[in-house]
């Protein structure tokens, strides 16, 4: 069939298999061109099919030569419906990993469930023995608690008062004011239950109890802090509360793993175009301005550059990872440089529909958004008949 993008707001409901494969290939080639990392041998990435998780998996396999297990929630193609982008990305990743001689296995299902944890542990036990790195990179709108059966929904809302700021419809370039009502106590509780640290803790406990977490293992989960512009809706809002919980979990896990020489980290990453960040009001506009400013300063990075830097300059340097005063790894350091943020703030004040293309890099935002789904990718013939049914070679 001919596969074209079909969008609904910040969601694209189709994905292109060859375009996704080309995007994965680009990331693989970037890592292959960098110095090798003396890093982990066997890696489990939970949330491995898109964004930061996919980039972590690529750096593990192609930067450190590790075997990888990826857990993710994606759908295969069915009839005239394409698979989701993460499905195609994972199929392409596995094909590339096989060429490079590293083992890779994929598990599709709900990472929050006991079943998927048990299935993953069985796979690790039979195929790899143990893992020495767990990357926790799940971003989800919902979670069903494995013990109580309660289903929680996460919301992106401010806390305490209504937040109003500029936002953009990135399809049309229209800049408007968005107002978001403050979250209720229950919405805060539910967001923490979805995006906080409980499930990360459950993964570590399950892996340890099963004896498949190697001594000296490392674990890392990702956070975002960002500038004043987004604080009310992000860091000081519901999602920030969840990230605080994730940070507290990292401290507990670090103590739990330390007796066996292990380590747990939060890495604060840069704002980037992913399926998750596209859903946050204000953030796409901020990213469009940030891209312009960082490109002008020669400091622009995408997921793969960020993750290569995390592994090679923070986690696996042979020395203790440099941490901020709260004990976090910072690879948002370039984004947060004062000269970058001053320039972003200056532009932000003047932004409107009339000057958006001049003052921001909305064109790149839009292009990268479509590239997440395998569209707008050089070398792909989007008018060609394409089979949407693609197998993931080592799907368990
Ligand atoms: P993403 O949407 O690209 O990826 C999310 C991954 O989680 C996908 O692989 C998806 O399949 C998987 N997933 C979702 N629900 C699942 C479930 N129930 N079971 C198994 N897998 C599931 O998101 P991302 O932007 O890469 O975010 C990953 C992490 O990085 C999050 O913690 C996010 O807060 C953090 N982060 C993101 C940014 C950003 O700008 N995008 C910046 C800093 C930190």
Automatic annotation (TrEMBL):
**From which domain of life does this come?**
Bacteria
Q: Which residues form the Trans-2-enoyl-CoA reductase catalytic domain?
A: 81-316
Its pathway is:
Lipid metabolism; fatty acid biosynthesis
**Catalytic reactions on record:** a 2,3-saturated acyl-CoA + NAD(+) = a (2E)-enoyl-CoA + NADH + H(+); a 2,3-saturated acyl-[ACP] + NAD(+) = a (2E)-enoyl-[ACP] + NADH + H(+)
Q: Which residues form the Trans-2-enoyl-CoA reductase-like NAD(P)H binding domain?
A: 2-78
A GO term for molecular function = trans-2-enoyl-CoA reductase (NADH) activity
Listed A to Z, the keywords are: Fatty acid biosynthesis, Fatty acid metabolism, Lipid biosynthesis, Lipid metabolism, NAD, Oxidoreductase
What EC number(s) has UniProt assigned to this enzyme? 1.3.1.44
Q: Function of this protein?
A: Involved in the fatty acid synthesis (FAS II). Catalyzes the reduction of a carbon-carbon double bond in an enoyl moiety that is covalently linked to a coenzyme A (CoA).
HAMAP family the record matches: FabV_reductase
NCBIfam families recorded: EnoyACPredFabV, PRK13656.1
On subunit structure and binding partners, the annotation says: Monomer.
Entry protein name = Trans-2-enoyl-CoA reductase [NADH]
- Which organism was this protein described from? Paenibacillus protaetiae
Q: Which gene encodes it?
A: fabV
